[in-house]
Amino acid sequence: MTIETRPSAAHRWTKCSAAPLFASRAGPQPTSDAAREGTCAAWVAELLLTDQPVEVGMTHENGWEVDADMIGHMQDYAEICRADGGEMWAEKRVRLNPRIAGTADCITLVDGVLTVRDLKYGFRLVAPDSPQLIIYAGAMVAGTPSVTCIRTEIYQPRGFHQDGPRRWIDWTPDQIRTKVKWIIERAEECYKPDPIATPGDHCLYCDGAVGCVALQQTTVTAMAIAVMTGHRDRTPFEMSQALHFYRNALEIISAAAKATEVEAEARAKRGERLPGWGLLPRFGNTRVKASPAAIKALTGKDATKIVPMNVGDLKLAGLTEAQLSLITERPTTGHKLAPLDSDTLTRQLNRSAK
């Protein structure tokens, strides 16, 4: 079981010290289609930046096929990177300290200006001051004394932000060093014997979410994503991507909620108490249990027709609720996990005390 503080997950472990530990316990997770697509896009970008041929139909080793849209986006990205001039490194391996190392998508250096650029092909917006970019910048600043200005930049061609797909922040070397110092301190917290788990919007896509209370914050996560989306008049393409994103977000929330409910209901049926929740009976439709003759004898009403009357027919015939209670039953069809109101909670606690 190896704990890792990778730059790509720094947005998570800088906020939740337990995330690397939980991820190591969970073991390798299946690679999502979104992750495979993003890896493929980064591969295409590297090929273009190193002047290697790229064509529609090429397939990454993970099985994802290159399409025309991906090539178009990556060509735009490559042109932006080349426009910086000076020295350029694609997919450069950098190390901040013995515990933090990763691969930067593209780094350029010209006239003392260091640009650290990160390509994001997904829909969830990423800020240009992300810890991942700060780590890469800090590693480069430490080994390049000629740097006088650092630009951290996000290029996100399918992210619908009011400022467009390209966003950046300029820093001084001292500002980067200050932020790096804090990141290193946060990383050290992850290696302590009992790291603290802190749920929040960073729980989305966390490999360690299994068995972690942070999973219950999925709704908070989705709300945070919606807030980060930003607002402006969108192009038809951006609107299309937005529709895909929100459909995907709904599926994530539904899947997470369903998985949690299934696990919680199973644990409740095994006798485990979940504070504020309990197994309540599920009821089907009220049905008549007495024969037409019995109904006639009990109520004086003729309940006979071609088929026995149902509850609605009996109500139309004028039976009171008290009379209906004598001749109907509502079968239990199973149980569902539901929040308990204060009266139900009190009754359950009283029964438990007896």
Describe this structure in words.
The chain has helices at 10-13, 19-26, 33-49, 68-83, 131-143, 173-190, 218-228, 236-269, 292-299, 311-316, 321-327, 342-353, and strands at 87-97, 100-110, 113-119, 149-155, 166-171, 277-283, 287-288, 328-329, 332-339. Helices cover 44% and strands 17% of the residues. Strand 1 and strand 2 form a beta hairpin. With 354 residues, the protein is α+β, with helices and mostly antiparallel strands. The longest helix has 34 residues, at 236-269.
Top keywords for this entry?
single chain; 354 residues; alpha+beta; five-stranded mixed sheet; two-stranded antiparallel ribbon; 12 helices; 44% helix
Describe, in short, the structure shown.
It contains twelve helices and nine strands. With 354 residues, the protein is of the alpha+beta class.
Largest beta-sheet characterization: 5 strands, mixed
Largest sheet strand order: 1-2-3-4-5
Tally of alpha and pi helices: 12
Contiguous low-pLDDT stretches (5 residues minimum) are: none
* Helix-strand topology string: HHHHEEEHEEHHHEEHHHEEH
**Mean pLDDT across residues:** 83
The number of E-state strands comes to 9
Q: Helical content, roughly?
A: 40-55%
Strand content: 15-25%
Question: What are the SSEs and their pairings?
Answer:
Layout: H1 10-13, H2 19-26, H3 33-49, H4 68-83, E1 87-97, E2 100-110, E3 113-119, H5 131-143, E4 149-155, E5 166-171, H6 173-190, H7 218-228, H8 236-269, E6 277-283, E7 287-288, H9 292-299, H10 311-316, H11 321-327, E8 328-329, E9 332-339, H12 342-353
Parallel strand pairs: 3-4
Antiparallel strand pairs: 1-2, 2-3, 4-5, 6-9, 7-8
Helix pairs in contact: 3-4, 5-6
